[in-house]
Amino acid sequence: MAPGDFSxxxxxxxxxxxxxxxxxxxxxxxxxxxxxxxxxxxxxxVGPGARPEYFPPRLRRxxxxxxxxxxxxIQASGILRESHxxxxxxxxxxxxxSGEPVAVIEVRHDARRDARAIRLSAGDGDADAASAIVxxxxxxxxxxx
Length: 145
Fold this sequence. Notes:
Blueprint: E1 7-13, H1 19-24, E2 32-36, E3 41-46, E4 58-61, H2 64-77, E5 102-109, E6 112-119, H3 125-140
Antiparallel strand pairs: 1-2, 1-5, 2-3, 3-4, 5-6
Helix pairs in contact: 2-3
């Protein structure tokens, strides 16, 4: 079960700015911002303007099972492990890598805050896990594949 203070924000940055091309990208690499608040409200913004400082509009309220599923994905992903190579001080200080999609993931839980920047094109376990988290959030936001 997810901790009572669990929240997550995910920003997918992409070098692509053309809306027509973005629409055809796999949804886990489309520029977007997902924010799940501790009260289970999911906020979502999609498009090239998605940045960590953007606070997207409220989309819907999730139920306990949906929140717990996100928490389980986070735990299974390994991104919360100590000394993670993608560790960053916080999403607000992140500057995108040039030329590739990146997921900036900040998780708050158990009075902690963990932030990671993960290259989605890296082809490693972290990229696969981050892509799965983004894709699940996109699914909860009713985005088409």
